[in-house]
Amino acid sequence: MKNRALKRLIYSLSVLLLLLSSFPLISYGLIKTDTVVNSGFKIKTIIVDAGHGGKPTGTGHFSHGASGSFSSERNVTLAIALKLQAAIEKDMAGVKAVLTRSTEDDVSFERRAEIANENKGNIFVSIHCNSLSDRHVREQVGTKRHKPVYRTVSVPDRSGKGVLLLVYGLHRSKEEERTIVHNQVEEDSGMDAGLDPDDPITIILTNEYKRKFRQQSIKLATLINNEFVETDGRPSEGLREQGIYVLCHTAMPSVLVETGYINNPSDEAYLNSEDGQNEIVSSIVRALLNYKNEVEHVSQ
What we know:
Blueprint: H1 2-21, E1 45-50, E2 56-57, H2 73-91, E3 96-99, E4 106-107, H3 109-118, E5 123-130, E6 135-144, E7 147-155, E8 163-168, H4 173-189, H5 200-231, E9 236-242, H6 245-248, E10 254-261, H7 265-272, H8 274-298
Parallel strand pairs: 1-3, 1-5, 2-4, 5-10, 8-9
Antiparallel strand pairs: 6-7, 8-10
């Protein structure tokens, strides 16, 4: 009982310190710059998620992914993810890249999020390929009693082109909060599963993590998008919110990268080429380096 009370006291103090760190006290002259403590935060682990897969393994929810005229999303995303893992560990000193899958076999949405949280990732990057659904159009197939007869047919829509960055949709905030309580707040408090999610202190700390993770997710997505557009000259649909399971069940800044439209002939050729994949990887790594420098500098 005493141990639990002590833990709760330490936990409460940590909440207070976190809240104080959220306000620009220096700019108001409330503390001196030479008294700021260097927290020493470092990005150590990046989770690289190759979207979709072939044969399902384990239980949970799966999605087959999109297909182009000669390739499939699951193979393209795995090829890019493997290259991204190697590039991160080569170009980002002291950073480990963990794959959610390294073979053609699929991994459930639930297991992908578990891998990210179990490995205490600092960033989650999910690699995907975009695709547009067929368009439904009416065409005349003849006449009957001097009146036209129509039928509805499906026509492939290959007009999509370029990249898109996704962050989790706010309508799934409750799932994000539960994930943060279980994987972040409980660890910070040292009380394992003994936290009351309705406790005001737990709510305050959870909301603070949620706010920071969302801001950082948008920041990282913006940096990646800028690299694609400004360095590679690729068209972009920008940033969007979307209710994607893995984004709201990972307790860390999380971004999903739609690397191109696999059902667009020119994008498909680019996504399957060595030059295209290397360019995508290089842009993501540059963005990760910029992000790492920014967040580690802020924590000092």
